[in-house]
Amino acid sequence: MKNLLTSYTPVICTMLLFGLSFVWSEQLLTFRHFPPQSLILFRLFFSALLLLAFLLATKRFQPPKRRDLKWFLLLALFEPFLYFLGETNGLRITQSPSLGSIIITTIPLFTMLSCFIFYGERSTAVNIAGMLITLPGVALVMFNNDFTLQAPLSGALLFFMAAASAAGYAVVIRKLADYSPFTVVTYQGFIGALYFLWPALGYERQSLAAVRWGFDTLYPLAMLTVFVSALAFVLFVYSVKKIGVTRSNMFTAFVPVTATITVAITGREVIAWHQAAGMAVVIAGVILSQWRTEGAARPSS
After folding, report:
1. 41 and 197 Cβ atoms separated by less than 8 Å
2. DSSP codes joined into one string, 231-289
3. Distance of CA 2 to CAs 6, 16, 238, 292, Å?
4. Segment 120-154, tens digit of pLDDT
5. Cβ-contact 111, 249 below 8 angstroms
6. Whole-structure pTM over 0.85, yes or no?
7. Beta carbons within 8 Å of 187's beta carbon, 6+ residues apart
């Protein structure tokens, strides 16, 4: 029982924090008009500083090996750079945390396909059926009662780009198994901040100067920096080492549940019956897509 708790509690906490991140991001992007690339730059840089201070204070700092530099650069390209470009701009366009979170739930499906291509991991018929089941579920969430899109298609496509980028991250993270989760997330944060430096300062200087700083801005920014960009990613990398990347990503199904409950409680979104049904279908499909029988191959870490 203790092993189960130490293995699965971190990944559950990770996905709960990812779900809350949609709500905190919406507060900044929609209500405080915080420029999206600058938001990510702030999150990454200050979370990486926080983690670096922790590593130095505890004498756990690991300098990167030269042969691994390319993997750190590629890791940060997938996530945070491409992932946050898709997630943050998709949220800005759609202004719908529930839609974004349910599309992000397809991450395990992209991961399953990527692991098959790069590592030869095969899926069972049940897994493939689960993948196919998610498609009508996502459609139910994306469309209104009259079959019109509830949000611009461009926003939904950006969310799918984020999901695909997370799969790329899952493939690359295996190359860095010799480093601690704190070290991986620290380097990924600093490199990701460098990636975002040009789009943020090059295109958003005026928008950033117009941001009204106060508690309503600093609070969600601090929550995203400390609990999502730092803590949640450390917990996720730890989970990958404990239970494998495919099983860790299975828990993405918790993300829309957290986001939807939060926006419903705060009254910022009204969830229609067919959208709730679509969420249930997607979550069921994700669980089936990751189902492992005794004879099935286990995912490697």
Report:
1. yes
2. IIHHHHHHHHHHH-HHHHHHGGGHHHHHHHHHHHHHTS----HHHHHHHHHHHHHHHHH
3. 6, 21, 16, 22
4. 777 677 777 877 787 787 777 766 666 666 678 88
5. yes
6. no
7. 48, 64, 72, 76
Cα angle value 25/275/92 (rounded, 5°)? 25
**Structural domain includes residue 301:** no
Chain centroid, CA 36 distance in Å = 16
Q: How many domains does the chain have?
A: 1
**How many Å apart are CA 139 and CA 133, to the nearest integer?**
11
Q: Is residue 297 assigned to a domain? A: no
In a domain, residue 185? The reply is yes
Residue 12 in domain: yes
Distance separating alpha carbons of residues 30 and 245, to the nearest angstrom: 33
Tokens representing 219 are 């609070």
Q: Residue 181 has what pLDDT? A: 93
Residue 253: give the domain boundaries: 2-289
Q: Tell me if residue 143 falls in helix, strand or coil.
A: strand
Write out the H or E segment, with its range, that includes residue 192.
Answer: helix 181-203
